[in-house]
Amino acid sequence: MMNINTELVLRQLLDKIADEQNYKEPNISVHAITSGGANYTSILYLATISQQNKDELKLFAKVAIMSDVARSHYYLPLFDLERFAYTNLLPRYADIQDRNQISEENKLVWPKFYGCNPNLYEETIVLENLVANGFNPYDRFKSINWAYASKAVETLAKFHALSIAYGEENPTEYAQLLEKMKFDPNSVARVSGAFTKLVKMALAVTKEENRERLKAYIEKEGDLVNMAKSRQENFVGLNVLTHGGFRPSNLMHRTKADGTIEVIPVDFQTITANSPVVDLFHFIFTGSDEEFRREHYEQLVEHYYQELSRALRNLNLDPNQLYPKENYKKDIEYFLPIGLIIGLFTLPVITVESENAPSFEGKDGMNSIACTKTSNLYPERLNGIVNDYVRWGIL
Q1: Averaged over 220-226, what is the pLDDT?
Q2: Nearest of 127, 124, 125, 128 to residue 4 by alpha carbon
Q3: Are residues 243 and 300 in contact, defined by beta-carbon separation less than 8 angstroms?
Q4: What is the Cα–Cα distance from 168 to 158, expressed in whole angstroms?
Q5: Nearest in space to 17 (alpha carbons), one of 55, 57, 76
């Protein structure tokens, strides 16, 4: 990987954006920020473009820092996907919402896009600064609560409903896109070594009464590639464009004056063709603890289907025809084991203290996840998931 001056790369793009936004003699300020251990692929910046007698433009930017090793490990072209989302997919979704006269309350909302740099090692995207409008990410060290979770799931349902609507309007084009975006199970072979280490980390902190159950289950399922293939190749349920990383760290939220919560998805780097319930489980098992799931798991699963049905009806589509409740229940049952795998893979970095967060810049690439110095929260969250899967009869 070349040694890139990320701020210089960003400033060149900001100069172009300032000109496009009609700032003729702009003052451009830039400063790097930290995600607090929630972002590993990019350096994050806040920027402002200002000019006398003109409103200040408050921006957020990401500049890629992934090493060649990390890029070779990852199973998706992250930066290409996010650029596709903002320049192609989301504008199509906006058009679908406008043509169906979706009210502001019922619309899916995403950050305003200002520009990007597609050049290799310089991949940059510039968006509106949501923090300046009162939005913030959820505290990843705290379990989600019902008020937040229910609104996040409502947002997820809108995202999936727009994918379904896209398919109904353009079936041939959509089928080609799903094929292009299809997850390749063989691609995870690149991180099989890291997964083996993550399993060892999990077994080391699993409570003694459940350790052999977890070990036996993983040995029965086989290696990571086999696990991925078994879920993918036998799946016959609903296939949509999923977010792929729908977790609290990739959502921004704010509480409105009336006390309701507004949630906006960000980080569209992992869009994949998959079952919508995979997104739902990603959110549940990365964002909640055992106590939340005992109280709200079934309620949240039901809430998602209700909201997806509502979002489809708002788009003049029939949920009973496109995704009957019995089919949804089958998909929930079929994909439930994936929540355990999501937990094994993500909990070390979701619960890591900021100063110990892994980096994708170096020679270890994504394998640095398996070298993470875990926090005290890790065994608590991990054992909570194991307890659930024992209770559900999977372990």
Answers
A1: 80
A2: 124
A3: no
A4: 15
A5: 57
Residue 357 has pLDDT above 80, yes or no: no
The residue-averaged pLDDT of 131-148 equals 96
Distance of CA 375 to the CA centre of its chain: 22
Instruction: Confirm if 283 and 246 have CB atoms less than 8 A apart.
Output: yes
Domain covering 77-111+134-391, topology: Aminoglycoside 3'-phosphotransferase; Chain: A, domain 2 (3.90.1200)
Q: Is the pLDDT reported for residue 262 higher than 90?
A: yes
Q: Are 225 and 188 in contact (CB under 8 A)?
A: yes
Question: Are 240 and 273 a contacting pair, CB within 8 Å?
Answer: yes
**110: which 2 tokens?**
């995403």
Domain boundaries, the chain: 77-111+134-391
Residue with tokens 């060290």: 141
> Do 206 and 214 form a contact (C-beta atoms < 8 A)?
yes
Do β-strands 54-64 and 113-117 pair in parallel, antiparallel, or remain unpaired?
A: unpaired
Mean of per-residue pLDDT scores for the chain: 90
**Which position has the token pair 């690149």?**
190
| Tokens linked to 108 | 């899916």
